[in-house]
């Protein structure tokens, strides 16, 4: 405390001595020089007050007990299990069951009684309707059977192809269209 009082008194005495001693010969100076001297004295006095104020409000020294310590995050244990992957299994597309020997069905027997050009014409018309995408060869195989059953189901009903007469009526209608 005594040391702070002594420093403050010394600063005030120095400022007053400059304020009293310097302006004496300054009356011969111009107004600009006198204003500069006043500004210098004011800056010295303000600087002294700032230094003294900083000394008074200096923060207390930091001790080890007040230093915050870092603790890392606590992630805990994982809530998730080990990932597993099931290998996908091939699932064949669901198709209409094709009876063994499709050419022995009433639809196949009726189809095979037509001439080769008529059978190709039937396959061409099934392809144009979007039901057949095989070769236009005039053979009654699984693709032709599926196409005939699909178009029959969509138009007249598949039960018409269960008899030989119904199959002939069906193919005749396709050839006339």
TrEMBL record:
Q: Which SUPFAM superfamilies match?
A: PGBD-like
Keyword match Signal: yes
Residue span(s) of domain Peptidoglycan binding-like: 117-150
Q: Which Gene3D superfamilies match?
A: PGBD-like superfamily/PGBD
A Pfam cross-reference name:
PG_binding_1
Carries keyword Signal? yes
- Entry keyword set: Signal
Signal peptide span per the entry?
Answer: 1-28
In Swiss-Prot or TrEMBL terms, this protein is called Putative peptidoglycan binding protein
């Amino acid at each position: 405390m005594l040391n702070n009082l002594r420093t403050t008194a010394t600063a005030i005495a120095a400022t007053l001595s400059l304020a009293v001693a310097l302006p004496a010969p300054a009356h011969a100076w111009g107004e600009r020089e006198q204003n500069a001297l006043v500004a210098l004295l004011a800056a010295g006095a303000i600087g002294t007050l700032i230094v003294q104020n900083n000394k008074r409000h200096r923060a207390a020294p930091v001790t080890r007990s007040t230093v915050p310590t870092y603790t890392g995050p606590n992630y805990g244990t994982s809530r998730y299990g080990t990932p597993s992957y099931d290998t996908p299994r091939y699932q064949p597309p669901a198709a209409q069951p094709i009876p063994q020997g499709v050419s022995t069905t009433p639809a196949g027997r009726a189809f095979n009684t037509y001439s080769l050009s008529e059978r190709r014409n039937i396959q061409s018309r099934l392809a144009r309707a979007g039901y057949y995408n095989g070769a236009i060869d005039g053979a009654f195989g699984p693709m032709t059977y599926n196409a005939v059953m699909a178009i029959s189901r969509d138009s007249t009903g598949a039960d018409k192809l269960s008899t030989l007469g119904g199959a002939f009526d069906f193919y005749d209608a396709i050839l006339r269209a």
